[in-house]
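Exercise 7. Predict the joint structure of the components listed below.
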Amino acid sequence: MTRAAQIAGRIRKNRTISISGGLLAIVALLAIAIPWISPNDYLQTNFDNILSSPAIAHMHWFGTDDLGRDLLVRTMMGVQVTLLVAIVASFVSLVIGVFYGAIAGYLGGRVDAVMMRIVDTLYALPFIFIVILLMVVFERNFLLIFVAIGAINWLDMARIVRGQTLSLREKEFVEAARLTGVSTARIIIRHIAPNLIGVVVVYVTLTIPQAILVESFLSFLGLGIQEPQTSLGALVDAGVNQKENAAWMLVIPGGLLALILMCFNFLGDGLRDLLDARQST
Amino acid sequence: MSALNVADLSIQYAGSSVVDGISFAVNPGESVGLVGESGSGKTQTALAILGLLPANAVASGSIKFAGQELLGAGEQSLDKIRARRISMVFQDPMLALNPYLKIGEQIVRILIAHDVCDAASAKVRVIAMLEAVGLPDAERQAGAYPHQLSGGMRQRAMIASALIAEPDLLIADEPTTALDVTVQAQILDLLDAIRKDTALLLITHDLGVIAGHCKRMLVLEKGRLIEAGETEELFRAPQRQHTKTMLAAAPRISTSDIPSPASSIVILSVDDTSVSYRESGHGQLHAVRNVDLQLNEGETVAIVGESGSGKSSLVRAILGLKPARDGTVRYCGDELPRDARSRSAPILRDLQMVFQDPVGSLNPQMRVADIIREPLLTHEQDVDREDSRRRVVKMLQQVGLGESYLDRFPHELSGGQAQRVAIARALILGPRVLVCDEAVAALDGSVREQILALLRHIQETSGLSILFISHDLGVVREISHRVMVMYLGRLAELAGNAALFERPRHPYTRALLDAVPVPDPARQRQTSALPGEVPSILTPPAGCAFHPRCAYAIDRCSKELPRVRVVGTAKVACHRAEELNL
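Solution:
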């Protein structure tokens, strides 16, 4: 059996991972499929049918909002945007963080000191505040949100990767490679990076919910996604304003947000346990 | 009536059996040795007795202590027994002692928890106990935290805490494995002297330890009890093959039949080399000071010493992993750059290393084939796939592993197999010097013998020169042509194998030889153990660093650093080398 197959087998057997992973897959699939299938459009307003409650009969399963737009489609669009922002932002932080951290950790000494002091300095900046300023100064756009969230998350990633690299660097297999004359670049790529994967994978599954929260928070403040585009955070914001007369506008996107966050957290926990178990056996 | 009665004990994890139907008894006051290689189930047995097995272990059978069944007993009834009537000494005292509690306080707590006496008299008893286990200035040391004590002192404190409540049974699980040899002897003597009426179950892989300290012994193999009896009887006439193998593999300082190397061409020469580290708050730590060493072609030189002797730092400086501060390393007459990164490819190729931890020295994410192939790819860019594969397979066969190992990952290998892979990786480029840093220390006796035989075979067929670091004098006796003894970063003695073992010139060499446990109950150590421990390398004693522990020290030793000079055939750094007859 190959190693990939072994790990795949273990993932299937692990209930936390398979349930949370499965749920996420279903949510993601629905988020992509429903706007396609549904006869309703997320932009289409209908002032004859505002704030109608969820019902199977009138083709608005999640009801409509205060402009009469179909909430099912809008919620699914929101899920799409939320997942996209989270995944892209995490990917940005992953790439920057892993390389930054691995280089700082492996080279050590003065390079490490300078690189990590830069990270410390960036940590000291109040990011949400800066993001809000950016949003106000520049026109709000999608790209800016990715950059803003990625820029917060890569700092954590860089620190974690650096710490791991520091201990990996002292491992005997790295010394053996140095003794053979393997180049520094190759040591980082062949010996350091593959051994970071475990930690990094776990950490990414745990940063995704963070990114989701930040995006939702920005959108909730009205600084994130611009109407008529939407995200779960923006929908919750809209829901809060209507909570007395249309509770579903708050409950449905809020519930989905909670479900997605929980799934990612459980997925991260599950993966961490799985990788720990592999190390101990 | 026996104190402890184990009947048909079996322990399983997820269906696989680690202890399989073993039965034995320990009588009051008796000392029994439990011997086995790693994975034989000896520690599991001890944990079962104390009710410390992890939750996923399934145990069956019976463990009776003074008539009470311990297996499956509730935590509350076990709490009444643990530390009070059965106590345990673990391998690593640093992990077994609570780092946040002062030594005295953690021992006092045992007495108070078991209502042995009140707080005031507990304190008095603890200090008396710490004195009895040989903690100097016990009253002050009782107020120390575990990390403030040396390894040997910590283990003494651990023994004090195990014996304070005068238990009926003391289980000692590899109590000396984490300690230096000279300290090991002290601790074993202490266990004998101090335990009075307490029965002792001594768990170890080292037959030398059993021979000196246990009346009866039990031999475990793969979870089964294969042999039991009087220690003397078993050593004289072992019945089972496994026992015989273990006895044969036990480290002992026997005669050496190693032929002298054919060549006397110096291949590697270390001159006046010093290595130091910057320690925050302490300034410089001088790990190696002014050491000279020559290695001839086809020769094995062993470097021996306890922790802090600088033996690892020295070879790391030679290899350029930790650049030396001073001195030169010449290879075939050419001076080498101090840092491995500035050394040329042909030199890197010729100097290779095998590390102590066989699993840690292999990248867990790479297959055996890729691990062994990497040096080839680094040095011969034009090597084609077919050719490199053929050479990797040939190398694997040479180290005694077959083609079937090519696709394995390190975690699928045993310790011995992993070490063979590490040796294959080191040898694939055909180096002329191989450095082995405690390369067999982590291996079981029989596997160790195989690896040593392999190294010797490779040397005979290829003329490889070997620098062999070890703390185990039995191994050194077996494999080396010459031996260098180091103490606190300096050379103590450098001599031929026979000369060093038969006529040591330095008192420290003598002490090391005396400290080796002899796997022969009939022939026990006569001399007393070396007092004290290796001092901190940060604050080495003035003059000869060994003088505070040396039985032969004179006034001059504490004032003047002894010069290294030739006495007989040996190089010795001792003021009294000429006059002493050790």
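Discussion. Chain A has one domain: 3-40+68-280.
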